[in-house]
Amino acid sequence: MTQPTHIRRALALAAHGVPVLPLRAGKVPFGNCPDCADNVCGGRPNMKTAGPCTCLAPCHGWAAATTDPHILNSAAWAPAWRRAAAVAYHPGGAGMTVVDLDNPAAVAWARQTLPATQTVATTRGEHWIYQGTMRSVNGVREGVDIKSTMSYARWRGSGIGATAALPDAVRAMAVKEPSPSRRAPQTLTVPLRGGQAKCPHRTPAYLDRGIAMAEQRIAEAREAAHATVYQTFLAVLSTHGRCGCLTETHVARLFTAAQAKGESPRHCTDAWTNALTRLGL
User: Which residues contact 222 (CB under 8 A, 6 or more apart)?
Assistant: First the structure.
């Protein structure tokens, strides 16, 4: 029987030392064991940054990427390959870093700022691929994400040009603040209820418990993630948005939970802004 195109491509990449995994439509990984099918576990690798998944081995997300042909051809992965919309790879696992340029302006910036390297055309921009690894960071500037360790990128072909060594200019972006248009909101400065100087809630634990419940609600969303994220943001802000008790740390926790479900930093910011507007904050 002829193998589907995606598994053939995945095996070819794996043979060259590139860890690969299948992607569903929308660039979302599969759960590759029965307990994690259709991301019922929350879809997060059971690694140091584990979320709700209790799978005994990482079977989804970037941690599932492998070069082992026996795993790629296994019966457990066969349903995913039949339904796959694309092949992804783990850049860090292949010793690489991808600078994801998401629009023409970002591409123009890279051409003026970064050393030339292997480039791959994407739907909206380009991937610039460097040899070397670093931590992955989204939104390092408008339209620019860094994908390396603990991340995956869609395979879009071998591209053109020679792969250059990862430059200090890219590493430095990981320690800079994201541009204001992409970063999580800072500490809220909305008006206090009744002009109170202190948070009117009973204890700090009340707020922490509310944030934890919001994180869990987002993580457990099995479909309509966009709507779930917005409704959760709305609920948090309706309870805590007027007293000034929400901090950047709280908001970052919510954004992190949303991004673990596939939401981009831009979508998180839009959902947060829309919730603020809805509540008149």
Answer: 38, 39, 40
